[in-house]
Each structure stands twice: as C-alpha cells, then as structure tokens.
Write a structure and sequence with these properties.
By secondary structure, the protein is an alpha/beta fold. The protein has three domains: 2-148, no CATH class; 160-188, no CATH class; 192-337, CBS-domain (Roll). It is 59% helix and 9% strand. It has 16 helices and seven strands. The chain has helices at 2-27, 30-38, 44-52, 54-83, 86-114, 116-122, 124-133, 135-145, 160-172, 178-187, 195-198, 218-223, 245-253, 277-287, 307-315, 328-337; strands at 200-201, 208-209, 228-232, 239-244, 269-272, 291-295, 301-306. The strands form two sheets. The protein has a four-stranded mixed beta sheet with strand order 1-7-6-5. Strands 2-3-4 form a three-stranded mixed beta sheet. The protein is rod-shaped and about 115 Å long. The protein starts with a helix and ends in a 10-residue tail after the last helix. The relative contact order is 0.10. Residues 339-347 have low confidence and may be disordered.
Length: 347
C-alpha cells in the first residue's frame, strides 16, 4: 500500500513538473531571458539555450510526462488490482485520473505561466539534462515531423512593429515615460525619411561668395543668425567650403577685414538628397560633422542639412532664442509662392 502511494506521488510530481516547465518555456519571452542573462542570474544562459532550441526542449519534457503517465499508470493499475476489489479499482482509477488532471495539468500550467521567467530559469538545468538523456529519441521524432514542416522553434528576433507596440504598452502600463515611448517609435522612422524631406531648401540658404572680404561681408555677418556659412565660387552649385561665423567675427574684431572669406573655409561634405536620415546621423557622428550640402540627381545644390535637422526627427522642433523662423521648409514654400528666394537657415 505504501509503495502504491509512493508511485502515485511520483507520477503526480513528474506530471506536475513536466506541465509547469512546458508552460513556463512557452510563456517566457526572449526579452525577459536577455534581461536575466544581462543581470547574470543563475540558470539564465541555460534557459536561453533551451529557448533557442525550444522544440527539443518541449519534446524532452513531453517524453518525460508521457513516460510518467503511461508507465506509471500501467504499474499502478497492476498493483491496484492486487490490493483492491474490482469495484474499488475503478474508484481508485477515477480518483487518480482526476488528480492527474488537476495536479498534473491545470494547476502546474497556471503556476508555470504566472511565474514563467523565474520558474523556467530554475528548471533550466533539468530541461538541459533531459535534452541530453533523450537526445536519440528527440532526433528520431524530429526526423518524422520534418516532412510536415512542424516546428516550434522560438522566434528570437523582434521586428519594428512589435517593438513599437511594446513601447506603447510599456508607456500605457507606466513602465516608461511618454517621451521615451515616442523616441523609440521615431527611431524606426529615420530609415523612411530622406535628406530632401528635412533639409533647408536652397531658396532660403544663407551663403556668401568665397572671394568677398570680411569688410565687404561685415553687415551680412553681423545680421546672420547661423553658425556655419556655405561659401561658393560662382554660384550655389559651386560650394567650396563652409566658414564658422565665430571665426569670421573674431577675425573682423582683430582687424583682418581684408582677408577673403575663403581663407577661413573648412571642407564640407556632400550628400545625395535621397540618403536616409539614419545614415545621415551615422555619418555625422562617425565623421564628427554638423553640416552637409545636399545635392540633387543632377549634381546641383538642393539645400543644406545639419545634425540638428536629423535630431529634430527624434525630439521634435529645436528652437533657440536666435531662431527667427521655426520651420524654414515652410518659409521656402512661402517664398517660392511669392517668387522670392533670399533668407536664412539654422545650422
């Protein structure tokens, strides 16, 4: 009688473990696993391996569950028939079946789902050992199911839409701030934005002739609301460099008014108007630049773009106390309608 009780307990325990582990493995997410790995929690690396090979892991757990239920039931049935009368054997079998459903399926799966991260992590070593022990059987099962395209391999990559949804849900549940959620979503929009969409158009670009002396350009320099000025040789399609307003004003203050603007020119980079904003950001950061000239498909100067223009796609409009026009693209369209083409830009 005691042996029968011990065998029934072993069946329920193995069934409990199998069902709870299976539920936990399916429920725990890749993001949660990576957080535990980065936090150096014990069992996390093994859990990541189990999740990456979840089909093998689940098969190993299912094998254990079926061995316990089938083999155990056969043994228990044989022992019960010797101990109990025919009527009580039926009652015992019904009671054991009910206990397996309750304690071997419903309860453990609920526990596994509710405590998936920690439960899957603490049982990771057990699952890993089961995968090794049942490796031949797992390989055989995979061989049989392969023609049917059956797979439960974990999806380890999140696409952009899923990350955006996660950001919105995290904000909704108070885990991150609204501005953080917006930044995450806007980052993925950079790839869809081209330089022509955010550049300062040619019609409102403030530029000066490189051959002009500081004295000749003094009045315009004093009124300029920009920090970097494109310099051209003959026209705007022939940009030869950029000059920093601080260098030009400092030279004027030191009495070097006869110097040409071109003497203060630095090299300027050129980018096509079809380059994406994310590539622009990478280029600005890599080359430690803040300014580029945008050229169209014919090689003509289409406008200029700054690091600030790209950052505004992430954080919104950046306006300081010297900005006379908040959006120069709107101003460019207005000037085009009014057939005027002179203005300024922010750099």
């Amino acid at each position: 009688m005691i042996l029968l009780a011990l065998i029934c307990f072993a069946i329920l325990l193995l069934s409990f473990l199998s069902s709870s582990i299976e539920a936990a493995l399916f429920t725990v997410t890749v993001v949660q696993i990576e957080q535990m790995v980065e936090g150096r929690k014990s069992g996390a690396p093994l859990l990541r391996n189990n999740k990456e090979h979840i089909q093998d892991s689940i098969i190993a757990v299912v094998i254990l569950n079926n061995l316990a239920n089938i083999a155990g039931s056969i043994i228990v049935g044989a022992m019960a028939s010797e101990i109990f009368a025919d009527l009580w054997v039926g009652v015992f079998s019904a009671a054991l079946t009910f206990m397996i459903i309750l304690l071997g399926e419903v309860v453990p799966k609920t526990i596994g789902e509710r405590h998936a991260p920690d439960y899957a992590r603490h049982t990771a070593r057990m699952v890993f050992i089961l995968r090794i022990v049942f490796k031949p059987v797992i390989m055989l099962i995979n061989l049989f199911v392969r023609p049917f395209g059956v797979t439960t391999e974990a999806k380890t990559k999140l696409d952009e839409d899923e990350i955006k949804v996660l950001a919105r849900l995290s904000h909704r549940h108070g885990n991150i701030l609204e501005i953080e959620s917006q930044l995450i979503r806007r980052v993925f929009q950079l790839d869809d934005i081209m330089a022509r969409d955010i550049m300062t158009p040619r019609t409102v670009v403030f530029a000066l002739r490189a051959a002009m002396t500081l004295e000749e350009a003094a009045d315009e320099l004093y009124r300029a609301s920009v920090s970097r000025i494109p310099l051209y040789a003959e026209d705007l399609d022939d940009i030869v460099g950029i000059a920093h307003i601080r260098d030009l004003l400092a030279a004027l203050a030191r009495g070097r008014g006869q110097k040409a603007l071109g003497d203060f020119a630095d090299e300027v980079s050129f980018v096509p108007d079809t380059v994406s904003a994310n590539r622009l950001l990478q280029s600005f950061l890599k080359n430690r630049e803040h300014f580029s000239v945008v050229v169209d498909e014919h090689g003509g100067m289409a406008g200029v773009i700054t690091l600030e223009d790209v950052l505004e796609q992430l954080v919104g409009e950046i306006v300081d106390e010297h900005d006379r026009d908040v959006d120069l693209r709107v101003k460019a369209r207005t000037l085009q309608e009014l057939r005027r083409g002179k203005g300024g830009y922010r750099a």
